[in-house]
Design brief:
Layout lengths: L7 E5 L3 H13 L3 E5 L2 H10 L4 E5 L7 H11 L4 E6 L4 H9 L4 E4 L4 H32 L9 H13 L6 E4 L6 H10 L8 E5 L5 H9 E2 L11 E2 L1 H4 L4 E5 L6 H13 L1 E2 L8 E2 L3 E6 L3 H6 L5 H7 L2 E4 L10 H16 L5 E2 L1 H9 L5 H15 L3 E2 L8 H4 L3 H4 L14 H23 L4 H8 L3 H10 L4
Parallel strand pairs: 1-2, 1-3, 3-4, 4-5, 6-13, 6-14, 7-10, 10-13, 15-16
Antiparallel strand pairs: 8-9, 11-12
Helix pairs in contact: 2-3, 13-15, 19-20
């Protein structure tokens, strides 16, 4: 718990002597009290300064304590308030509690009772704030990323995941590094009937070749030097849930043979063991390498490939779904604003333009890292100066890169001025739309960022059928 010494308290009472008496007692107890004898003034102060606790008298003019409490609670739902009144009837106390007051004390005030109540109210506030912080941290830790996308390719992928998740299929996920292969595996698990069972993830690319077998299948005591106790492997740890083998193309051929046997017989043996252990989990694997090429080169078993590939999912790279970039930008902006306690508003039009023209070799993971850096460095808007020194910082903005993506057959028979006009409209519409999304559709803010007046923005939105 934090200390009470920094807690700020506003005393609202139309009796100056009573305010002074309470203020002196709170100061002596180590608090920071402020005083006002007027309800409307109390509301103004609560807007200008954030108080942790309010001590409110009920009978005041021109605004009584209940009205002040209601207005303050509208502004600060988390704020605590203690009502002070010489008229201690039950109905009034009930009204106060319904409006969110922490407690109701009758005048004349017993100072010992008041100080105890103040301490309890502030401890309650601190606990409330700690719970909120923990919930935010858990949300960030447990679901920092999602399979997000409104593009046709991502919608098709999400629909397919929903269709196959209910079936016990061995799924092979293919996609470039950073596209979200583990997220796809987790989505398959979360939507399946195994969702309450374990999800065990293994990165085959990071396991030393000498440890792969013992890590996957476990070992018995004495199986090798250093095996001082029995250890279940990842296959057993998965239970009846999902075992995810990432970068499966990196498995040594000796382990591939044993994996094939497990899939065929649905049982395994630990290293040094003689007992057959049933394998109940669903296996999902992923790779960013060309397994067909690896098969031809003798690096990957063809029979294992067909066992793993009962159903194949392909995750499109980010460059094939550029329309999803604003959605991902907003997601990461919200995520890192919460994580770093920032209030960054969005990305500038120049940066959005770079984002939509960049090739994204690192895919969504690269975008996530760039957004994290941007949120950390920016105050209000993520500008080009906040980008890391690398390919993105050197990329051409969309206005100059746009024509490179136009197929030649699409512009045959058109005059240059018509092509330029068409591309100008496309890029202008794109930048307006992305800036609107970055500002959460705040038109005034969008017009300011684009350095155009509100009427011009309104007319262009109408012309381009935006919103």
């Amino acid at each position: 718990m934090g200390t009470v010494r920094s807690k700020r308290i506003l005393i609202v009472d139309d009796e100056p002597e009573h305010c002074l008496y309470i203020s002196q007692a709170l100061t002596a107890a180590g608090y920071q009290p402020s005083v006002t004898n007027d309800g409307p003034k109390a509301i103004t102060l609560s807007r200008e300064q954030k108080f942790d606790l309010y001590l409110l008298d009920i009978r005041m003019q021109p605004m009584d304590g209940l009205a002040v409490l209601q207005e303050i609670r509208n502004q600060q739902p988390e704020a605590k308030a203690i009502i002070l009144s010489a008229f201690g009837d039950v109905d009034t106390a009930v009204k106060c509690m319904k409006l969110g007051a922490y407690d109701f004390l009758s005048k004349p005030i017993n100072m010992d009772e008041l100080l105890i109540t103040v301490g309890n109210a502030l401890k309650s506030l601190e606990l409330q704030q700690e719970i909120k912080t923990l919930r935010d941290q858990i949300e960030i830790q447990q679901s920092p990323d999602q399979l997000l996308g409104e593009s046709a390719s991502m919608q098709e992928l999400l629909h397919t995941i929903e269709q196959i998740a209910q079936h016990n299929l061995t799924v092979l996920i293919r996609g470039e590094s950073g596209t979200g292969k583990e997220l796809t595996a987790r989505a398959l698990h979360a939507l399946s009937q195994r969702a309450e069972e374990p999800f065990v993830s293994v990165d085959c690319a990071t396991l030393p070749e000498t440890l792969v077998e013992s890590e996957l299948f476990g070992y018995e005591r004495g199986a090798f030097t250093g095996a001082v106790a029995q250890k279940p492997g990842r296959f057993e740890q998965a239970g009846k849930g999902t075992l995810f083998l990432d970068e499966i193309g990196n498995l040594p051929t000796t382990v591939q043979v044993k994996l094939l046997r497990v899939l065929q017989e649905r049982c395994l043996r630990r290293l040094g063991g003689k007992v057959e252990i049933p394998f109940h989990a669903t296996l999902v694997s992923a790779t960013n390498v060309d397994l067909e090429k690896s098969i031809k080169e003798g690096k990957f078993r063809e029979d294992l490939y067909y066992r793993l590939n009962e159903f194949m999912l392909r995750i499109p790279p980010l460059r094939e779904r550029r329309g999803d970039i604003p959605l991902l930008v907003k997601h990461f902006l919200d995520l890192f604003n919460r994580q770093f306690h920032k209030k960054v508003l969005g990305v500038s039009p120049e940066v959005i333009s770079l984002f939509t023209s960049y090739a994204w070799p690192g895919n969504v993971r690269e975008l996530k890292n760039i957004m994290k850096r941007g949120v950390v460095l920016a105050d209000e808007w993520i500008e080009k100066t906040h980008l890391s020194e690398g390919p993105l910082a050197q990329a051409a903005p969309a206005e100059t890169a746009g024509l490179e993506s136009i197929p030649l057959e699409a512009i045959e028979g058109f005059a240059l001025k018509d092509i330029v006009k068409q591309e100008t409209v496309r890029v202008e519409r794109q930048i307006i739309l992305q800036t609107l999304e970055a500002t959460r559709w705040n038109r005034s803010l969008t017009a300011k960022r684009l350095e155009i007046d509100y009427k011009t923005l309104y007319n262009k939105m109408k012309e381009y059928q935006i919103g």
